[in-house]
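Here is an idea for our session: we take a single protein and study its fold together. Start from the sequence, derive the C-alpha cells from it, and show both lines together. Once you have written the record down, we can walk along the chain together:
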Amino acid sequence: MSRRFTPKIVTANRLREGDVVYLTADDRWSELHHEAELIEDEAHAQLRLLHASAQKLMIVGPYLADARPGPRGPEPTHFREEFRTRGPSNYNHGKQADLAS
C-alpha cells in the first residue's frame, strides 16, 4: 500500500548569494517560507520541481520539502526546514536581523 502524499513546497538556494528561497505560485523565488506555493497533489509537485530544476542560472539544489497549511501560509514540518527559514546561524545578519525587528 502506498503512502498518502503530504503537502510540499519547492525550495532551493539562490545561486549567487546562497540564500534559501521558495518557489511561489506565480513563479517567483521568495526568501519567505510563508509565500511558497503549498502543493497538495503529487503530480503537480513533480512538475513544479522540474520547473525549478530547469532554472540552473538562478538556483541550485531544488527539492520538495514537507509543509503544512498555516494562518499566514505554508509552515515547515521538520526542524531542518524551520532552521533554513532563519538563515545562517553564525552571526546576526540578513534574515535573522530582519526577523528580529
Remarks:
- Helices lie at 42-53, 79-84, 95-100.
- The longest strand covers residues 59-68.
- The chain has a mean pLDDT of 90.
